[in-house]
Design a protein that fits this description.
The chain has one domain. The protein contains 12 helices and 4 strands, in the order αααααβαβααββαααα. Helix 3 packs antiparallel against helix 5, helix 5 packs antiparallel against helix 8 and helix 7 runs antiparallel to helix 8.
Length: 384
């Protein structure tokens, strides 16, 4: 999807080098081997593990610590955005107009939002507590909670890590999971809907009064505005959670410790569970009787995707992953999470994707340096 030119801080992230190096240098290995002979060669793997453990702290390898630290950062980011959704649209939220528009998509949507937020908060808290229990440094992004909150009824007026008021939502995940081709084999996918510079929460009460009704079809400008905002949120939910499913699957391949693998492989599937729910609701948001609907402010139209002639890629009820290429194109197609290669689903790819989503609009250069450093260290981890 074509996007507006990023800020200088965002450009640094989008241009970051995906490649990193790790392990023992060839010169160092040759020098050690020459000095220690065959015995050093036999003990090499043990020595490498011992070094990695010492660098990781508390019994964690350096790579495992890096993976957990990035996942903690990613969960803090997710927890921040889900907290905003929960405050305004969750079952205990405080914006009746937004809640009603969400319920047009799925009557249980406010409950799901609250539960998704609860899950992400638990992930962030657990990962940091586990790091500390192993003598490793936890991740704290509080210094970067400086982005403004929505001024709409229900939103707490506190600093945020993320912004949900002008998103460029990548909706290609919708067609990707309905396709038999895989981004890890170089495939690309069309956007289900082109969503640019669009809020996923009401910006203020002047934008959409909190007592705005939500009839179907909406008739007034405010009714159309809030319904289009709610539909944008449905696609953003799917975008966020499919990314989490890919991230955990990608980083799991790099883990060394069995306990850390247990953590990564136990949290990751919950992201896929979330995605499955939002995949269904995104289809509802772009289907009768909710769609079509046009935002009178931004001009975004949420179409009825069931009317798209390419039914295989756009049909709303095709919510399970379509079998796709995996490992080798000589093998049968298989229904899997995708992507799971570093270049598409890794830590650096995740931060770049969030940046392109405008999720970090207004963040400082220091924030981007911090999260990108964590991402690069996680991607550099190697299974020992």
């Amino acid at each position: 999807m074509n996007r507006e030119a990023p800020t200088s801080a965002e450009a640094d992230v989008l241009a970051a080098d995906d490649e990193s190096t790790g392990g023992v240098s060839r010169l160092s290995f040759l020098a050690t081997g020459a000095a220690a002979g065959v015995g050093a060669t036999l003990l090499g793997p043990l020595g490498k593990t011992a070094t990695a453990l010492a660098q990781g702290g508390g019994g964690l390898t350096k790579g495992d610590a890096a993976i957990l630290r990035f996942l903690a950062a990613a969960e803090l980011i997710e927890a921040d955005l889900w907290q905003q959704y929960d405050e305004i649209g969750g079952v205990n939220g405080g914006n009746p107009a937004y809640q009603a528009a969400l319920e047009n998509i799925d009557s249980d949507m406010p409950t799901y939002i609250h539960l998704n937020n609860e899950d992400e908060q638990s992930h962030a808290a657990f990962l940091n507590a586990y790091l500390e229990s192993k003598g490793a440094d936890p991740v704290n992004l509080d210094a970067f909670r400086k982005l403004p909150s929505s001024k709409a009824t229900g939103a707490k007026q506190v600093g945020r890590l993320t912004s949900l008021t002008s998103l460029d939502v990548d909706t290609s995940w919708y067609t990707r999971y309905r396709s038999s081709t895989n981004p890890d084999f170089g495939a690309t996918f069309p956007q289900a809907i082109t969503i640019r510079n669009q809020p996923a929460i009401p910006i203020s009460d002047a934008d959409v009064p909190p007592n705005t009704p939500a009839p179907l079809p909406p008739t007034t400008p405010a009714e159309r505005r809030i319904q289009a905002i709610a539909c944008t949120a449905a696609f953003h939910f799917g975008y966020i959670e499919q990314g989490g499913a890919s991230l955990y699957s990608t980083l799991a391949e790099k883990v060394t410790g069995l306990e850390v693998l247990r953590i990564v492989s136990s949290i990751g599937p919950t992201e896929a569970m979330h995605f499955s729910t939002w995949q269904d609701d995104a289809g509802n948001a772009a289907n009768a009787p909710v769609a079509p609907v046009t935002d009178p402010v931004t001009g975004l139209t949420i179409p009825n995707l069931d009317e798209n002639p390419d039914a295989e890629l756009f049909q709303a009820n095709l919510i399970f992953p379509h079998p796709t290429e995996f490992i080798s194109n000589k093998l049968p197609l298989c229904a899997v999470v995708r992507p799971t290669l570093d270049s598409n689903g890794g830590a650096v790819a995740t931060i770049k994707s969030f940046t392109a989503d405008n999720l970090f609009q207004g963040q400082s250069a220091a924030f981007f340096r911090t999260v990108m450093k964590l991402a690069e260290e996680a991607d550099a981890a190697q299974h020992i």
